[in-house]
């Protein structure tokens, strides 16, 4: 961070794909990270206790930090979307964000910025409509969850803390998330288009996501909803073709929509795998953020270490 060197940054969800990359990047840049942990604290110098499911949080420790980033939440595709698991997806995001936000709002010494994860699921399934932050939200389970998730940051904002809700796209990394799950079938030559292949995939390479979060921490004019996706969304067909090219594997296997629904369940299939939205990062670009992986070929080559 250029404007704010040597910050103390509290990170929730620090053990996850994004959280572990962010904490490493912050520490490399000379910042001090305090991880919010959902178990008893082992080292009080580096960890802050919270247990969102029980409404517990160490508020006093949070008054020592300059910035807060919340990247927690139960995995979207870790289970079938039963009513019980959907409740867990929602509660682990909305209730934890509300607890954090209300706690920050009540501190006498508040952090200057609260960056919170949200997701492009906010926009729902939108065909090839061009979407930016001025577009209205969509419908469906993920859109409703994201609306509530973002609304839960309101106490921070009302108390004068700058808030950024990062509407994160599909994160591309070899270490986890959607791409890592696709690698085995694609390497075996059985990867291919899902459904019509026309559904848009708005993606972001992990290194650019980390840079965007750091930009949000540092850049005072940025606030509110921030689409955190690369400026070149692709269709599932284009993504499939490029992944095959980068891995030098065929992508002739086509999984029809009914089979995708059988494998993932209809709701998850329709909202995540067969549906999508064509999303642009207008606000990040307007504020001068530059993507190092702006197109899908560079992104896949970078995160997969292929040249
Ligand atoms: N990866 C993507 O493609 C993507 C796309 C859009 C949005 N996002 C959002 O970005 C954030 C980070 O994503 P990620 O890929 O890093 O996720 P991740 O790897 O699944 O990590 C999420 C972290 O959340 C915490 N967590 C897990 N279950 C929880 C629960 N029941 N209650 C509270 N916290 C829980 C855990 O951290 P601790 O054990 O350290 O608490 C976990 O490591 C998430 O909110 C995710 O929804 C991700």
UniProtKB/TrEMBL annotation:
Residues 9-219 form the NAD-dependent epimerase/dehydratase domain. Residues 255-302 form the DUF1731 domain. Pfam families: DUF1731 (PF08338), Epimerase (PF01370). CDD domains: SDR_a8. Belongs to the NAD(P)-dependent epimerase/dehydratase family. SDR39U1 subfamily. PANTHER family: EPIMERASE FAMILY PROTEIN SDR39U1, SUGAR NUCLEOTIDE EPIMERASE RELATED. This is Epimerase family protein. It comes from Aeoliella mucimassa.
């Amino acid at each position: 961070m250029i404007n704010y060197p040597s910050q103390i940054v509290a990170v929730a969800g620090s053990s996850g794909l994004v959280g572990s990359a962010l904490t490493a990047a912050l520490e490399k840049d000379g910042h001090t990270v305090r991880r919010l942990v959902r178990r008893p604290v082992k080292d009080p110098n580096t960890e802050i206790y919270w247990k969102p499911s029980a409404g517990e949080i160490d508020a006093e420790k949070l008054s020592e930090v300059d910035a807060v980033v919340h990247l927690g939440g139960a995995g979207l595709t870790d289970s079938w979307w039963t009513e019980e698991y959907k409740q867990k997806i929602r509660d682990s995001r909305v209730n934890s964000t509300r607890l954090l936000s209300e706690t920050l709002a009540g501190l006498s010494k508040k952090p200057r910025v609260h960056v919170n994860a949200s997701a492009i699921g906010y926009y729902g399934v939108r065909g090839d409509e061009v979407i930016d932050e001025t577009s209205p939200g969509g419908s469906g389970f993920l859109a409703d969850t994201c609306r509530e998730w973002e609304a839960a940051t309101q106490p921070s904002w009302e108390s004068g803390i700058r808030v950024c809700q990062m509407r994160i796209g599909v994160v591309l990394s070899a270490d986890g998330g959607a791409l890592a799950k696709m690698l085995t079938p694609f390497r075996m030559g059985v990867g291919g288009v899902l459904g019509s292949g026309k559904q848009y995939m708005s993606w972001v390479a992990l290194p650019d996501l980390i840079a965007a979060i750091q930009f949000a921490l540092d850049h005072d004019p940025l606030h509110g909803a921030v689409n955190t996706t690369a400026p070149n969304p692709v269709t599932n067909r284009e993504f499939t073709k490029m992944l095959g090219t980068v891995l030098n594997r065929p992508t002739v296997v086509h999984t029809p929509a009914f089979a995708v629904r059988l494998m993932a369940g209809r709701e998850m299939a329709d909202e995540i795998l067969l549906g999508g939205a064509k999303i642009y990062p207008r606000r990040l670009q307007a504020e001068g953020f530059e993507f190092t992986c702006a197109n899908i070929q560079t992104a896949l080559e970078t995160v997969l270490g292929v040249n």
